[in-house]
Each structure stands twice: as structure tokens, then as C-alpha cells.
Design goal:
Layout (H helix, E strand, L loop, with lengths): L10 H19 L9 H16 L7 H29 L2 E5 L8 H4 L27 H6 L2 E5 L15 H13 L4 H24 L1 H11 L4 H33 L6 H13 L6 H29 L2 H21 L5 H15 L2 H5 L6 H6 L3 H11 L6 H30 L4 H29 L4 H15 L8 H13 L9 H15 L5 H17 L6 H15 L1 H30 L31 H17 L13 E7 L4 E7 H8 L6 E3 H8 L3 H12 L6 E4 L10 E4 L9 E3 L8 H27 L1 E3 H12 L7 H13 L3 E3 L6 E4 L2
Helix pairs in contact: 1-2, 1-3, 1-7, 2-8, 3-6, 3-7, 3-9, 7-9, 7-10, 9-10, 9-11, 11-13, 12-13, 12-16, 17-18, 17-19, 18-19, 20-21, 20-22, 21-23, 22-24, 22-29, 23-24, 29-30, 29-31
């Protein structure tokens, strides 16, 4: 191939030369015998275009070459795609036309099958071509055609086929194009690959045209022109057929058949690439139909599965379907289809049947929770988390289940406690301790579900919280949950408690108790009960470990805030300061020989604001104790003169020696008991009234202490009459014959039920809290309606307790009478703040 570049090249001469190169390229693509392009061939073709575009007018043929470039593709597509496409499929057919009257034989009336092995030169990956079947009945009725098998010879069509080739193209091929088979897809892929090769080579030949002429004229690039020709001539005619064939193969794969995924990938690449950077053709011509087919396919499947399968089996199938659809996207669908495709599958398999699936009687969500099917619950979460609002019904069922479990536990404990009421209170108390322990175990179990199965999703945390709030705020055996939790903590933290745990187990249990406290609405009630029990542990040296005491306060502070634990922390600090104060007192006594109390005295100085309130009586102390009190008062005044000491004798303890006839026994008693016993050093017999007068105590306290000394286990005093109750007419005398196998015994006072006082104290504190909240709100808002004031007040106080609306209304009225608020004259439901 040579071309004289020195002379002016006219259009016809130059194009004839280019046509030879284009024909050579076509032959190579079609697998015909043709030598490959050499570098010289390529340069001659490129130079020819260059010269024809750079010649002076009127011999500048840039526009004409641009048009002929397009015509080359149109001609190639028309001859190769429209004719060779069919001819390639029919090369192995020998066809004879038999003119004459149409008399279809029985053989022709049957479906005529044409099976053809198609040769595919230069396309090794497409060598395994499937056989095709063509319904030739319509052709046979109009034309009496006899079709015989023949062998293709030397790459050409049989001589007998040529006269009727046009007939086959115009009539048989429409039937072929209506088929949705793999053969058509393979041929389409082959032609598309050949076309892209031709576009690439011709773009190189015409590169100068592309670089200068097209750029100046703002025309479509040669590459785009080549692809546009394929789109207009081939794609527009065959894309529906190709789409249906692809979707058919996808459905076959969904049914478990093996398909050629590489073929589908190549076909779908055509839908993508034909858009030249845009996804419109893929989205509109293929994806939309795929999504519709997907919805229909899985709708049919789901309607059968929901009737035949259990909930776990259904979910296994649904999860596997989603996995396979993702796999399809990874192998041959475009990545942009993944979200839309999975949404279709999820909608048909999950959204449509969500309620029916979750509420299956023997295998639904309730059954999975009941039977602890952790793996199935995890799968349920994974599936339903993918659909809009899919987790809400799951969370609701979870909440119902937890509420039912907790309420059943409360009822069981109530029944057990009522059966034990005739027995000792200790047995009932043990039942309550077991109840708290079981609630902790229940919380651990369902929190594990939330963490592991439901991946810490906020919906399930909320469901768990609301469920526990339902039954954790129910009373058990006459005790509130706040009291039960405080008592449980006391048993863990005090010496000799019923809970025998290691240090690590204690820390873990305290952590769980504090978590349970989050569900208790009356946190202030818990705080007061806990403070009472903490005081007894600290004052009577019953705390097992100071570190555990500080640890739970830290946990409570993190959970409820610093204000919640400020008093408790002050109590612990007071004990540390009290020990230092006692050491100073002992040093004071050693430095002052005249200051000798005569007995060992330990005084614990407490800060009034931190500790629970206690009754303070002016007990008439025995002379032995009066001197001790005066000595400590003198010592304390040396340290500070601005603080007043109030003695709480009810919290004191004494060790006294009882000299009985058998032996001397050390008695560990309260200050009240000690004062009463010391009265008998100066009198053998004392009446009830004499004891009460000399001690200056109330009736209740005298009855308690005399009962402990005369009617309980250790009868230090004899009582007349000898009954089990104490009355004002009784007379008491020292029991000199008392004995015990122990040399040291503790005589406890009957416990006082502090529950009523704690509740009264809490109610009083709540009134103050409501008042303060109302004043804060009104001070900032100045004018506010009743409903909004109540709502804001409830919101402010909700962290500590749930205020009663009636109580808020009552406090508003009280603040009005005290001139903090006033009602609007025109609107009685509107309040104004009075500065």
C-alpha cells in the first residue's frame, strides 16, 4: 500500500486508498485471511488523512472525511451487523427454494429445527456456541422451503444458499430476533467487541482529523461517533431482546441453574458503555426491567415460603437470597444496581410479610426469645435492620417479652412472700434478696441480647429500659423497689451479710445494681434508704470494706450526678475526720493528767447536713457518763467555739461488766440500755415509771429497751408480772442469777421500722424540690401557663423522682399564698412570677 504524498490528493483518490485500509481492517475482524497492519501501513493511512486535511482549499477535505468516517461505520454495521449477523448464524445451512403451490407436508407442519455450529474466528472465548432452534412453520406456509444440514466449506456460504439469502434475512431473521437465547447474546458481544476494535483503529487513522478539525468545529469526537452508530443501528433494535435474554438467564440462575456469568457481564457492559459516561441506557433499558422482574420473582417465592416454612427457615432463605443478589452484582451487574436490587428483594421477602413472619405462633419472635435462639435473633436483626422501620416491631415484641418475664418474676416473689408471712421476717427478707438477684440475672440476660443479637441498637436499649421500668417500680411484699435495692446493697457491703462474694464479684454486682437504679423512678427514695443503711454501717463499724463503699458512691455519682451522692460522700469523709478527731482527743487526755474520764470514751463528731435526722432526747446520763461528756465538750471548745454539739445517745454503744453470781459477763449494749442497767447499781427494784422518769425517755423508747433486757433472749432483768410484753405497771429487778456460756454477749434493741419516717422525710424533701423547681422556671419565664409549668417541672425533676401532678398543683397554690406567684386576673390558668 503506497501513496505519493507530494502531489495533491483528491477526495476520490484518497478515499479509495483509505477504503482499502478499512476493508483490510474489516477482513481481519471477520477472521478472513489478511496480513496484520505493519507500522508502514499505519503511517501511510495516517499520512493520507493528514495530507487531505492540510491541503489548501478547495482540497481541504476535513468535513468530507468526517462524514465518510461515519458512513464507514454505518456501512460496516449495515453489512456486517444486519447481514453478516444473520449470515454468520446460517452459514452451515443449505437452502433450496422449491417454487410451486404451497402444500405443507406433515413434516413441515411440525416445528422445524435448525441446528447450527457457528464458526467464530479470532474469538476463542466464545468458541462454545450453543445450538439454536428456529420455528420455521410460518416460513414453510408461505414458501415451500426444504432445509437440509450442510457443512460450511472454506468460510463461505453454500452456493445454494445465496439465491435465497435475501429471503432469509427478511423473513427468517425476524423470527430469530424474537428469540431470547444465549446465542444471540454471544453474537452481540462478539460484534460489540469487533466494533470497538474498529472504532479504536479508525480513530487512530483519522487522529489528525479528531485533534484539529473536530476540536475547532466542536463536533462529536470520532470515538463517540463510532459508538453512536452502533447505538443507533444495532442497540436500538436489539436492546429489548438482549435485556429479556439476560433477565431470563438471571432467573434461571435464581432457580439454581448454572449460567455463563462472563457472558452476562459482557452484555451488560454494552448497556453501560453505550451511554458514553452516562448510566441512562443501563438504568432505563435494563435495570428498570430487572427490578420489576426481581420483585415478581421474589413475590412468588415469598408467598410460598411464608406458608410452608418456620420463621427461622424463612429467614435463612431470605438471607441466602440477599447474599446471592449481592454476589450477582459483584460478578456481572453494575455496582449502581446493588442498593436498588437489594431493596426490591428486602421489600418482597421482608416488608410485605414482616408482621406475619414475626408473629408466627410456634416460631416467631416471641418463640425465639422464649427459647433463647440467639443465632436466629441475630439473623432477624440483620434482616429487619435493612428495611424501613423494620426493627420497630421486633423491638416492641422484645419489650413485651421482657415485661412479661419481669412481671412473672414479681408475681412469683409476691406469692412466695405471702406464703412466708406467717414465718419469720428474715425468711421474707431472704425472698426479697433472691428477687433482686434474679432481676439482675434477668437484666444480664436481656442486655446480652441487646449487645450481641441487636448490636447495641438504640431501639432495643429503649425497649429494655421501658420494660424494666414497668416491673422494677412495682412493690414486692410491701417494700418498694428502691428499698429492696438499698437493702440488697447493704447485705453486700456490711459485715456478715447474706451475700458472700469475692471482691471482684462485689464490684461487678454493685455495677449491676447501679444499672438497675436507672429504671427506678423514685431514686430519691433509694438515696434516703441507702443513706440510712450506710449510716448504720459506718457508725457501728459494720462496713466490710471502705474501698467498696467509695466504689459504689463513684458509680452512683456517674449514674445520677454529684448532687445525688454529695451527702453520702460527706458521711464517709466525716468518719475519716472523726478518727482524726478521736486521736486528737486521746492526745488531749494524755497531755492533761487531771482530765481523766475514768472510762474509755470514743466520740464520733458528725456534720448535721450529711447524716439522716435522728431523735435527740435529753437523756439523764449516769454520773459516770456525765463526766466523760463534759471532758469532750471542753476539748472540742479548744478547737472551735462556733459549732454546737448535739449528742445523739440513741446511736451510742457501751461495754459494761455485769457481775452475776455465776460469773462476770461483758455486756455490749446501747447507751439507753447501759443507762437503764446502771440505775440498778443504786436500787434493787425499779418500776416502769421510775425508770422512765430517771432516764427522761419517751414511752416508746422505754418499752423497747426494757423489753430487750427482760423479755428477749438475754433476761438481764426480771419482770413482774412475767409476761412477754412490757406495760407501765411492771416492776423490774436485776437478775443476779443470769448466766450464759459466753463471756461476752451483745444485747440488741428491737429494730425500729424506719420505713415510715424515711417516706415522710422524702415527701418533705420533694415538697422543697418542687417549690425550687417552680420558682426557677417562673423566674426565667416570668409568665407561664399551668400546663406548660407542670410539664417543665416534671421534666426538671424526672431524674430523681416522678412528681405527682396533684402535688405540683398544691405547691403552686402554696407559692401563691406566699407571694412567689400570682394568677393572671383575666386567665386563671396563667401565672406570673413576683420578684
Amino acid at each position: 500500500m503506497m501513496m505519493n504524498q507530494r502531489n495533491t490528493i483528491d477526495l476520490e483518490q484518497g478515499w479509495d486508498f483509505m477504503q482499502k485500509g478499512i476493508t483490510k481492517l474489516k477482513n481481519i475482524l471477520e477472521g478472513l485471511p489478511e496480513p496484520q497492519f505493519s507500522s508502514e501501513d499505519y503511517m501511510m493511512l495516517y499520512t493520507t488523512i493528514y495530507n487531505m486535511c492540510t491541503q489548501k482549499p478547495p482540497h481541504d477535505y476535513s468535513q468530507q472525511l468526517y462524514d465518510k468516517y461515519r458512513e464507514s461505520f454505518q456501512e460496516y454495521i449495515t453489512l456486517t451487523m444486519d447481514v453478516d449477523f444473520e449470515e454468520e448464524n446460517l452459514r452451515s445451512l443449505q437452502i433450496e427454494e422449491d417454487e410451486g403451490p404451497i402444500r405443507p407436508s406433515s413434516r413441515i407442519r411440525r416445528r422445524i429445527r435448525i441446528e447450527s455450529e457457528v464458526s467464530r474466528p479470532n474469538t476463542a472465548q466464545l468458541a462454545d456456541t450453543p445450538r439454536i432452534r428456529i420455528d420455521g412453520v410460518s416460513v414453510a406456509y408461505r414458501y415451500r422451503i426444504r432445509i437440509r444440514y450442510a457443512i460450511r466449506q472454506q468460510g463461505g456460504v453454500s452456493v445454494h444458499a445465496k439465491p435465497v439469502l435475501k429471503l432469509l434475512v427478511s423473513i427468517v431473521l425476524p423470527s430469530l430476533r424474537e428469540k431470547h437465547d444465549e446465542f444471540m447474546l454471544r453474537e452481540l458481544v462478539k460484534r460489540w467487541l469487533n466494533h470497538k476494535i474498529m472504532v479504536r483503529w479508525l480513530s487512530r487513522f483519522f487522529y489528525y482529523l479528531d485533534r484539529y478539525f473536530i476540536a475547532r468545529r466542536s463536533l462529536p469526537p470520532l470515538h463517540d461517533v463510532g459508538l453512536t452508530c452502533f447505538r443507533d443501528q444495532v442497540y436500538q433494535e436489539l436492546h429489548v431482546k438482549a435485556r429479556d435474554a439476560v433477565i431470563s438467564l438471571v432467573d434461571q440462575e435464581r432457580e439454581g441453574e448454572q449460567i455463563d456469568r462472563a457472558l452476562l457481564k459482557n452484555v451488560l457492559d454494552i448497556f453501560v458503555e453505550i451511554g458514553m459516561g452516562q448510566m441512562d441506557y443501563y438504568d432505563n433499558d435494563f435495570e428498570a426491567a430487572l427490578l420489576t422482574d426481581t420483585a415478581a420473582f421474589y413475590s412468588r417465592k415469598a408467598s410460598n415460603w411464608i406458608l410452608d416454612d418456620s420463621c427461622p427457615d424463612y429467614m435463612l432463605k431470605a438471607e441466602e437470597c440477599l447474599k446471592r443478589e449481592k454476589d450477582r452484582v459483584a460478578h456481572y451487574l453494575h455496582s449502581s444496581s446493588e442498593v436498588k436490587l437489594l431493596e426490591k428483594v428486602q421489600h418482597e421477602l421482608l416488608s410485605v410479610y414482616a408482621t406475619q413472619l414475626l408473629e408466627k405462633e410456634h416460631s416467631g419472635c416471641h418463640a425465639l426469645l422464649r427459647d433463647d435462639k440467639v443465632e436466629d435473633l441475630s439473623r432477624m436483626y440483620r434482616l429487619f435492620s435493612k428495611i424501613p422501620r423494620g426493627l420497630e416491631p421486633v423491638a416492641n415484641i422484645f419489650k413485651q417479652h421482657v415485661t412479661a418475664e419481669g412481671s412473672a418474676l414479681v408475681k412469683h416473689t409476691e406469692d412466695a412472700a405471702s406464703n412466708k408471712k406467717a414465718e419469720k421476717r428474715d425468711v421474707v427478707g431472704l425472698q426479697e434478696q433472691v428477687f433482686v438477684r434474679k432481676v439482675i440475672e434477668l437484666h444480664d440476660k436481656f442486655m446480652a441480647y441487646v449487645n450481641d443479637c441487636f448490636l447495641n441498637h438504640t431501639l432495643f436499649h429503649k425497649a429494655l429500659k421501658e420494660a424494666f421500668e414497668v416491673f422494677c417500680n412495682k412493690g414486692v411484699a410491701g417494700s418498694s423497689s428502691a428499698e429492696l435495692l438499698a437493702t440488697f446493697c447493704d447485705n453486700i457491703l456490711k459485715k456478715g451479710g447474706s451475700e458472700k462474694l469475692s471482691d471482684e464479684a462485689i464490684e461487678d454486682t454493685l455495677e449491676k445494681v447501679v444499672k438497675l437504679l436507672a429504671y427506678i423512678s423514685d431514686k430519691d427514695l433509694f438515696a434516703e434508704f441507702y443513706r440510712k443503711k450506710l449510716a448504720r454501717r459506718l457508725l457501728f463499724d459494720k462496713s466490710a470494706n471502705d474501698e467498696h463503699e467509695r466504689s459504689i458512691l463513684t458509680k452512683l455519682k456517674q449514674q445520677c450526678g454529684g448532687q445525688f451522692t454529695s451527702k453520702m460522700e460527706g458521711m464517709v469523709t466525716d468518719l475519716t475526720l472523726a478518727r482524726e478527731n478521736q486521736a486528737s482527743f486521746e492526745e488531749y487526755l494524755s497531755n492533761n493528767p487531771n482530765a481523766n474520764p475514768g472510762i474509755d470514751l470514743t466520740v464520733t463528731v458528725l456534720t448535721t447536713g450529711f447524716w439522716p435526722s435522728y431523735k435527740s432526747f435529753d437523756l439523764n446520763l449516769p454520773a459516770e457518763m456525765v463526766k466523760c461528756v463534759e471532758l469532750f465538750r471542753e476539748f472540742y471548745q479548744t478547737k472551735t467555739k462556733h459549732r454546737k454539739l448535739t449528742w445523739i445517745y440513741s446511736l451510742g454503744t457501751c461495754n459494761i461488766n455485769g457481775k452475776f453470781e455465776p460469773k462476770t459477763i461483758e455486756l455490749i449494749v446501747t447507751t439507753y440500755q447501759a443507762a437503764a442497767l446502771l440505775l440498778f447499781n443504786s436500787a434493787d427494784r425499779l418500776s416502769y415509771q421510775e425508770i422512765m422518769t430517771q432516764l427522761n425517755l419517751s414511752d416508746d423508747d422505754v418499752v423497747r429497751l426494757l423489753h430487750s433486757l427482760s423479755c428477749a433472749k438475754y433476761k438481764i432483768l426480771n419482770k413482774e408480772p412475767s409476761t412477754k410484753t412490757v406495760s407501765p405497771t411492771d416492776v423490774f429487778e436485776f437478775n443476779s442469777k443470769f448466766t450464759d456460756k459466753m463471756r461476752r454477749i451483745k444485747i440488741p434493741l428491737p429494730p425500729v421500722d424506719e420505713k415510715k419516717k424515711v417516706i415522710e422525710d422524702v415527701d418533705k424533701d420533694r415538697r422543697y424540690a418542687i417549690d425550687a423547681s417552680i420558682v426557677r422556671i417562673m423566674k426565667s419565664r416570668k409568665v407561664l401557663g399551668y400546663q406548660q409549668l407542670v410539664m417543665e417541672c416534671v421534666e426538671q425533676l424526672g431524674r430523681m423522682f416522678k412528681p405527682d401532678v396533684k402535688a405540683i398543683k398544691k405547691r403552686i397554690e402554696d407559692l401563691i399564698t406566699r407571694d412567689y406567684l400570682e394568677r393572671d386576673k383575666d386567665n386563671p390558668n396563667l401565672f406570673k412570677y413576683l420578684a
